[in-house]
Write a structure and sequence with these properties.
The complex is a heterodimer of chains A (247) and B (145). Chain A is mainly α and 247 residues long. Chain A has 7 helices and 5 strands, in the order E-H-H-H-H-E-E-E-E-H-H-H. Chain B is built from 4 helices and 1 strand. The chains are: A mainly alpha (247), B mainly alpha (145). Chains A and B meet through strand 1, helix 1, helix 3 and helix 7 of A and strand 1, helix 1, helix 2, helix 3 and helix 4 of B.
Chain lengths: 247, 145
């Protein structure tokens, strides 16, 4: 998609929009910009707290499982799958937008459906990961006693290891920084909520496409606006992936 | 049945010309996939570096910095091509991108603050409950006196 504008065209002389996009699309961009600052503030507060601690859990030890592989040590594997699912659903979304540009209703329906499938798959993965963290208990030395605790907003079993202390074949840790669970569940939860609302928006767009609303209107701009939101969700995941799993 | 979409709104003076093929979309998909693979390989490299108890912290920091730059490249491709911001006119690109420059100050100031907070706690408040690991060697309480 490209725009051809004569050289030296005066956008600011009045009588027309200087942005050359519809009101709705411009406001979607401004909404996404403000949402960028919301996510930015959350991730930066996480980084600040992390910087203020002498110890922070290594993500490769916390996120090292894959459904169906039990306790096999597979760092980064499951989150790679989640990232791939989200990139793939971004591609199907942009193909839906492209089909809309060509007034290809069948194409829009097909690619929107695949985008929704991708979004649901991602949400399923996140549900599994949260369940795994909240229910998976680990031996931790608290006040001289070994206790089994899981990763929640109130407990963190991923502190430094107690040298030489084992419990039922597993290494015993001290409690990790309490902020870890709050930031992880808060930020991935807020992102997951965006994915969920994106899936709902995409579903509404699919229904409206099937009912022929956009064909009657003569353009599929609503698909473009829903697409902007969906790509933004993928964009945020790039940084959640970076801050929680990679560094 | 190939037909062109109507102009969506009277605010659009110059309509966008729809892309004839999806070649560029797939190209960007491969770029994103390859960058992600490189990021993951760096993640594994850090994992293996951490296995050595006397690992080189600067090396880990260099890998992490490279991963951050690669993530910014991914963000550029998603916004520019998938969200079509690169195809819009300069006015709208600037109204979105310029406010984001605030992040430069935002990130620098807060990371600096977190770092200084850690130093202050290590120097003056050794026994605060939120501290989960002994302070590094060489820093004694009241060292600034």
């Amino acid at each position: 998609m490209s725009t051809t504008v004569p050289a030296g065209y005066k956008w600011w002389s009045g009588g027309k929009s200087p942005f050359n996009v519809s009101y709705g699309k411009l406001m979607m961009w401004y909404f996404l910009m403000s949402d960028t600052f919301t996510f930015g503030a959350l991730l930066i507060s996480y980084a600040t707290i992390r910087m203020s601690q002498n110890y922070w859990p290594d993500p490769n030890h916390v996120f090292n499982t894959f459904p169906g592989f039990g306790h096999t040590n597979l760092p980064l594997a499951f989150v790679s799958l989640m990232t791939f699912i989200l990139i793939m659903s971004s591609v199907t979304m942009v193909l839906a937008v492209n089909a809309g540009h060509h007034m290809n209703r069948r194409g829009v329906e097909k690619w929107m459906a695949w985008t929704i499938v991708g979004g649901l798959a991602f949400l399923g993965c996140q549900a599994w990961e949260w369940t795994h963290l909240i229910t998976g208990e680990h031996a931790v030395l608290i006040n001289g006693k070994i206790q089994e605790i899981s990763t929640t907003v109130k407990g963190n079993p991923w502190g430094p290891a107690v040298a030489g202390l084992m419990h039922e074949g597993h290494q015993v840790n001290t409690p990790g920084p309490i902020a870890f669970g709050g930031f992880f569940f808060g930020i991935t939860g807020f992102h997951g909520f965006h994915v969920f609302s994106g899936v709902v928006i995409n579903l509404i767009m699919l229904i409206k496409t099937r009912l022929g609303h956009f064909e009657q209107r003569g353009h599929y701009e609503m698909i473009e606006k829903a697409g902007l939101y969906w790509h933004f969700v993928d964009l945020v995941w790039v940084f959640v992936f970076l801050c929680f799993y990679l560094v | 049945m190939e037909q062109h979409a109507a102009v969506a709104s009277p605010e659009i003076t110059f309509p966008h010309e729809p892309a004839s093929s999806t070649k560029r979309v797939w190209k960007v998909f491969w770029i994103l996939l390859i960058i992600t693979m490189v990021e993951l390989s760096f993640g594994f490299t850090i994992y293996f570096i951490h296995m050595n108890p006397n690992f080189n912290e600067h090396l880990v920091l260099a890998f992490k910095g490279t991963i951050v730059i690669l993530s910014l490249a991914k963000a550029y491709y998603i916004v520019s091509v998938f969200m079509h911001l690169g195809d819009e006119i300069r006015n709208i690109i600037m109204t979105i991108v310029l406010p984001l420059l605030l992040f430069i100050w935002f990130i620098a100031a807060f990371l600096w603050d977190g770092h200084s907070w850690r130093n202050l706690k290590n120097e003056f408040n050794r026994d605060l409950p939120q501290q989960t690991q002994p302070q590094p060697e060489g820093q004694k309480p009241g060292a600034l006196d």
